[in-house]
Amino acid sequence: MALTLWGSTEVSALIGGPFTTAEVHARLRREIDTMNAHKVQYWPVFFLQDNELAGCAGLRPYRTGEDVFELGVHLRPSYWGQGIALEAALAVVAYAFEHMAAKSLFAGHHP
Questions:
Q1: pLDDT tens-digit profile of 90-100?
Q2: What CATH number should be reported for the domain holding residue 19?
Q3: Residue ranges making up the domain that contains 52
Q4: What are the TM regions of this chain, as residue ranges (predicted)?
């Protein structure tokens, strides 16, 4: 799944890519390490109408020790413009405040 998403030149162009297969594997390893260390990650997002991977959405520590997280959403191009990013982001925001005791969230974008 990671290669399907982060291996896409269209997706990765928006997050600092393109990425080689080795870089995608390293990125996945960092996500797993973040989950183990901070109990947050980017979770897969599936489009329920076709059960296909649409992308991922989640949290990563932004200011550790201050309960500030960065929110992110990465979607495959065929799922752009359908409101999925908003729906996923709202679910992540709810999770952050209800389960992670976040004090604030940060979201940015790659130029």
A1: 999 999 999 99
A2: 3.40.630.30
A3: 2-106
A4: none
| Other beta carbons within 10 Å of 83 | 8
CA neighbor of 79 nearest in space, from 58, 111, 50, 59: 50
Residues 90 and 10: their CA atoms lie apart, in Å, by 24
Q: Two tokens at 50?
A: 């076709």
**79 DSSP assignment:** G
Q: Is residue 85 part of a domain?
A: yes
Domain membership flag for residue 111: no
Residue 42 burial by Cβ neighbours in a 10 Å radius (0-12, 13-18, 19+): buried
User: What's the structural domain count of the chain?
Assistant: 1
Over its C-alpha atoms, the chain yields an Rg (Å, rounded) of 14
What are the pLDDT digits (tens) for 16-43? 899 999 999 999 999 999 999 999 999 9
